[in-house]
Prior knowledge:
By secondary structure, the chain is of the alpha+beta class. It is built from 8 helices and 25 strands. It has a 5-stranded mixed β-sheet, with no helix packed on it. Strands 19-20-23-22-21 form a 5-stranded mixed β-sheet. The protein has a 4-stranded antiparallel β-sheet with strand order 5-7-10-9, with no helix packed on it.
Amino acid sequence: xxxxxxxxxxxxxxxxxxxxxxxxxHNVFSVEKTTCDECVRCGGxxxxxxxxxxxxKNPLNGLGDEWCPGHQxxxxxxxxxxxxxxFSPEYLVSVAEINSAKVTPIKVNGFRPVKGLQQKPRYxxxxxxxxxxxxxxxxKLEMINNKLQVITTVKDGFCTQSAGKFxxxxxxxxxxxxxxxxxxxxxxxxxxxxxxxxxxADQEYCHGxxxxxxxxxxxxxxxxxxxxxxxxxxxxxxxxxxxxxSSNPKEQCSGNGVCDECNKCQCFDEPTIxxxxxxxxxxxxxxxxTTINYSECHVDCIISNTEGPCEACGGHxxxxxxxxxxxxxxDDWNRRMWVNCSVKTESRILVYWAMKINTFIYMMRNEQADxxxxxxxxxxxxxxxxxxGVIAAIAAMVAAAVGYVMWKxxxxxxxxxxxxxxxxxxDSVGVNPLYKPPTSSFKNPMYAAKS
Length: 451
């Protein structure tokens, strides 16, 4: 059972390979990126005129005199013939193009058909320069009076992908009872002479995205079109969401790039744009601050401000001790490596600096730069350091006024009496109605609260 299944799989594989090769040659006349070599190997005729749109045509469909005049790639071989005693020619060298029947007439000298005697012609494909060449060569013989017609056809499976410009087939022809044999040597074109001349990328024809070969642009894998002027978007699943969901260019690619023809974000990379080296093309060109702020583990790392790797992020984050001198670090393009970011929690705004090297994110915080706890007032959000600063300023002014009065009055203030004796120390603590004590826990609205 196992042997049968193995044999069946082998036969299926052989069929797949066979039909795959046949399909390749079937499509060679319509596929845009067909090369001259592929065209010739499949029996097509190639046009090396750069101005001609249709490069490869099947001769069986009719070419017409108006198609590619003077620019058709043809193999030229000077025929070589030598006559023998019986066969003329006894030795012949000529061209046999793929899928084109080559008719070779051979005169048989002294041949007189005798009634009742069958003198059959015979042939043998005894040598080819391709490994599977014999199975792709078909010969038909017709004996008419003293003329032997040899019809030789080389099929498109003859040339391999590694075949050279010229390959060869040797056919031996003879007659029963005749010792002499006729040898036909056929030159089979399996490539183009122009393919050996590769011109560097030409801006005029290939827009710098391919080579001009045999009058056609051979484009890079990510380009297509006659002049490689289009991006090849086939089989691409990496489109950017913002390129599909938004019609507003300002909303596309997070405002840090533009959508290309394949709906893929192309991020800005100008050195003058802060942090442009960190724009993520695979995430709608989001900047480094946004990437960090929308990650719970990142924000936890910033809040804790614990020096060392952030284990919650798999060790790909590192919280570094504050060092202001690092802010002047620059890369090879003289861009600042550290970018200034901030994240707003429920109670305050945390200020931090970040940079990225490969997949590792480094962060550091200067807690003195934080805005502190937010306080709601009629005039808007005012941070606690601001409120305390105002209170301190008022207290300083009051103290200065009291000191001035004491200095001017030399004891103008009354001594301790019954009216002051009942004031306990706790009564002297004033309460600021605007002040709200800072909380010790913070909730980031940008990610879900932990359970």
